[in-house]
Structures are given as structure tokens and as C-alpha cells.
Amino acid sequence: MDSLLFPPKVELRLRLVESTSLEVTVENTTEETITVQPRGHQNFLVPWGPMQPEPDVLDDRPRIIDSTPQNYAPISSLVVLDAVTGEVVRGHEDPSKCHLRDPKADTRPRVDELIKLEPHKSITVVHQIDWKMKGLQDGKYKIRMHPKGCRWWRGKVENEEGEDGKVPARLWKGVVVPLMLRSQDELEVTIKDGKVDGAL
Q1: pLDDT tens for residues 94-112?
Q2: DSSP state of 166
Q3: Has residue 5 been placed in a domain?
Q4: For the chain, does the N or the C end have fewer beta carbons within 10 angstroms?
Q5: Where are the beta strands (DSSP E) in the chain?
Q6: Is residue 192, in this structure, part of any structural domain at all?
């Protein structure tokens, strides 16, 4: 078996810049450049319970740092709680639905979909979260992030001849522990007259 690679530390911060605009900043806190996969099939070691993988680890939905244009912002990892009772009113959606995939299919991501994080530098994306809050009753709510894992590589992953623009097969087959995207930030919002009134 190849030497097991353990992930570097990144810092992820969440901030409401407008009532429904979420600013997400990820910073590489290490001394080396790393490349992160924010979308597509994630290929990394997963923890197994008594009968099956632990919940969420097989979730292939885009991660919160993904900036690729799409119909819905990649905020499946956000959890909304009632600020008074602590009850979860919007969870991170269940990813356990069966997704059939051809075992021979090439699931490698394209190199141009990856994110390069240079040492001690940050990247910021902004997502609209109005659809996550839609339909909530008037009141005060808290928003937290549920941790999600990403495939990652040391250094910069570049296109190589014969790989059709995808991550080279020799890199895709490596054994790695996922880089975890997590944030300690807790945001607060108020719903008034059925609309987000803004940050508290």
C-alpha cells in the first residue's frame, strides 16, 4: 500500500454579507500549496461502522467552497436551527438515496474544476441561501455548517498528456484521508413577515 497521506489544516469562515448572501472563505494555513476537489465523486478513505460507511461520507454533492455556476448554491452542508429551542428546522439533506453508477465509469474530476490553495492565502466565494430559509416561520434562527470531506493533493495538479483534461490516473488512485471542511462560525438571522430580515 502507498504511504497514507493525512490532510493539511485549512480554516473556513462563514459570514453574512447581506440578508441572504453567505460569504465563505477558505484559507490554507500550511507552508505548502495544496489542490482540493470541490465537486464530483470523492475518492478517499472512509470510516466504516458495523455494517456500512458512516453517514454522509459518500456524499458526492458539491462542497460549500465550490464556485462553479449551478442552479442551486452548494450549501447542502448548512444546518438551520431554531435559536430558542435548538431544534433543527433545516438539516443537511439526506444523501443516502441510491445513485447507480457504472463501475467502469471514469469518475475522475477535470483539472479545471479543482481549487488551488497557496500557502497562507485564502479564496472567497459568495452563495445565495434564500432557498434554504424559504418557508420558515417568523422568528430567530441559527445557521451552522456540518463538516464535509474533500479529496486533496499536495502541490498543484496539472493537465497531463493522454488524460483528457482529468486528474491523472496515477494521482486519483492514491490513498488519502479526506481534508475536512468545517467551520466553528454560527450565524444568526431573523425571519420577519416570511422574509429574512438580516443578520443580528
Answers
A1: 554 445 556 678 889 999 9
A2: B
A3: no
A4: N
A5: 10-18, 21-28, 34-36, 78-82, 88-90, 115-117, 122-128, 139-145, 148-150, 152-154, 179-181, 187-192, 195-199
A6: no
What separation, in Å, do the N-terminal and C-terminal C-alpha atoms of the chain show? Answer: 51
Boundaries of domain holding 117: 10-80+91-136+145-186
Residues whose CB falls within 8 Å of the CB of residue 49, separated by 6 or more in sequence, listed in order = none
3-class DSSP state for residue 76?
coil
Residue 17 within any structural domain of the chain: yes
CA atoms within 13 A on the CB side of 44: 25
Structural domain count, the chain: 1
Buried b (16+ CB within 10 A) or exposed e, 6-16: ebbebebebeb
Q: Which residue has the cell 438580516?
A: 198
* Cα 65 to chain centroid, rounded: 6
pLDDT of residue 4: 75
Asked whether residue 174 is assigned to any structural domain, the reply reads yes
Q: Kindly list the distances between the CA atom of residue 102 and the CA atoms of 99, 106, 187, in Å, as whole numbers in the listed order.
A: 10, 9, 40
Closest CA to 10 of 28, 23, 25, 24: 28
